[in-house]
Amino acid sequence: MTPERLRPHLESWLASGGPGRTFVVHLDGPWSGAEQLLVGDQYVDVHVCPSELAVREELTRPRPDGRSVVLLSPAEVQGADLLARIAKRRVLRLHAWDAVQHVFGVRQIDPLLLGEKWMAEALVESAPAGGYERTAAQGLDADRAWRALMRHRYAIETDAGLPGLLYWCGSPDTSRLLGRSEDERAAATRRLTSMIDGAAPVLALAETGKGDQALALGLVIRVLVDGPPGEARATARTLLSVMLGGWVFDERDARAWAQASEEQVQELLGRDAPAGQAALQAADGGVAALHAEPLVGVSDLLAAGLRARLGELGAVLARRRAGDAQPGEIERAAERVRSHRLDEHRGLATMVTRLVRWLQNEAPDPADFRAAAAAHAGDESYADWARTALRAATGEPALDEELRALVAEADERRRQQDVAFAALLAKFVGHAAPGGPVLGVEEVLERIVAPLAEQRPVLFLVLDGMSHRVASELTEDVVARGWIELRPSEQSTRTLVLSALPSVTAYSRTSLLSGTLVKGNAPDEVKAFAAHVGLGAVSKRGGAPLLFHKGSLKDPHGGLASDLRSEVAGDRRIVGAVINAIDDHLARNDQLAAPWSATYVPLLRLLLDEARNAGRLVILASDHGHVLDRGGAARNGGPDHGERYRRATDPAGDGEQLVEGTRVLVPEGRCVLAVDENVRYAPRKHGYHGGGSPQEVLAPLLVFAPGLAEGLNGWAETPYDPPAWWTSDVEAEQQPPSVAASAAPIAREEPTGQLTLGDETPPASDPGATEPAWIVQLISAETFVTQLAAASRSRVSEERIVAILAALDAAGGKLLHEALARRVGIPPLRLTGTLAMMRQLLNVDGYPVLSVDEDTGDVALDVALLREQFGLGASS
Prior knowledge:
Helix content is about 45%, strand content about 10%. With about 900 residues, it is α/β, with parallel strands linked by helices. β22 (about 850) and β23 form a beta hairpin.
């Protein structure tokens, strides 16, 4: 007899009568409570009476406070005079199901429950104060009873499913079930396993006292489900059954356990990374305990699975080096690394495939300097990005060895390209004249900044030392922040700009900011920028052009200096700023790999935000680029030299190039430039400039508008156009599809003569190409027409819809976002918005006809589902 069993009966008895009554209750066993019991809001005295005489004595005691009393007695009280003086005129017995009715507030009990006496007692003992949650139902069914028992007796929330059970297994609450009788544990286990897929093995693990391993072991179970059949998997399953006390492996339960564990750990990694990492480390121990190492490659979450996939990628690269790799094998191995949920090496796998594709392409042989410069800006700079990224080791020895071999192969090709470029450079600078398709840095203000500032206010940002490699990386980040890249209407490639020679700050940056080839320093640049005739001519309002240098950019307490913010927000037509982040980064023997983004360069991010708020165009320029240190030994540069140039007292040797002409600003008008990345004449540091490689002498020039730009005379939005091998869109490079021309692409203005920066025109469309028949059917389908009309406020042109659908269909239903942007000729920002609107249009009733995976960047089209949703019929 316990207070928990007695209390609900008393609540019911007291509710049907007044105070001061005496109840005699049959006592079967000892009383475990005190002499007073709180029932609702009143106290009841409790006395144990071992005999009828003791009952008689208690009945004679006065009760001046009017308190009710319970007499617990094992005796058979039969005296009529006694029975007449007690409540209900009989000895009461505790019938558990009667108490259950009271604590649930019901009148009937499901007959299926009545045979489970233990359950009635358990429900009564575990009832919370005031009883269980009430409903309008007058009967108690098995489902409600079990849910209440699970919650209040064992602390198991059945509505939380298997994830909730996994959490419970790792808590001290497991003792609330495991400490019960064998019959009760068995009944509760049967119920849980009937309600929740995957509960059986998890409860079996809890029975062994290892419930805190349920989450980690669930990650390992994935490889026992999806791993390749064979001896290793059979052995691991047997060991698991032993670990779980004889549980017979059931694939459905195991798969549910694995799925719930993976989802929970994935959520932990985002919310509480240390806890998520602890689960992953524990899972590695589980792999070892089950001898499941040969199976881990199938796991998308185990750290051991990622290591296995990295090992596979290394093995495939080794076969490539030996000439034994099969077509597509590297792409598949890299995709397995990318698909792993631990994204530590996702970018590396992407760069591997890109660099391999680049090496598979035949290296171009530029006919002249302009072609060589264009090849670097549009192709080689991306290869430089990839080979730089792949210099980071993974910790997997076999893969790291293959990465070193792959990078060495790319380095050698780039060395040959740089040497060829430098030879063309030497010929070009000997007769270079202003006004050509390749701008000198001194022409940027006159030919780019002034014409743009005449139409819109401009923020002119100079990133000292920015190479095309860095510019490519920055561009992706800036565009992702909502900026649109612009180029002259008649020009499809980046504007080409050549530094002064040698390509060092004192020559190139001063020439850039002065508008003439000259040597100088920061004060010279500030004066020359303000006095530039072309800039002054378009600065009628707000005052002369104003340039801020490194020391005047930052507020000592954080953020931008107040006067810089005021000028960007004000009426001054042209505001300039010099950011030295790249040059500063190169000046150290740095062991950090810089991710060139606006986040990594906070001044750039802040200035972009200010420019957006002010509605300014942003021109992102450089005075020269740089090469990174590759570990070469320093050469003797003689008495007068820079990091990568020297006087021409000795002939140019291996990896060097002699240059002379009006663009060479050293006193003699001629010097020797280092071309090979391993050549330097100064102490070692992170990177160098001043040489003759395209990375150093070609200065990127990028123009961005805050949002979608329209009405800017002579300039047009730029479609995303990295090399095809970069986006894996090789088909687009080999044969541009006609849909790119039918996509209502960016309207290009007729040349105005204002800017003559190139002679390239957009590729012509293929007039003989046609769209798939199902697209034609879709455009006229009733459901589609209705959806299109409903989306009138965020209308996507029919031509653009056709272009995107046709491109996805031609690619088998899936393309990376960047590859799709390239195929249809749409800037990435426009494509992001367009896809969002198309998903509203095509995903009728929420069905994923068109989907975008934010993690991988995949854009997927389910043509079969589209046919069904729009009533087009099955494909023929």
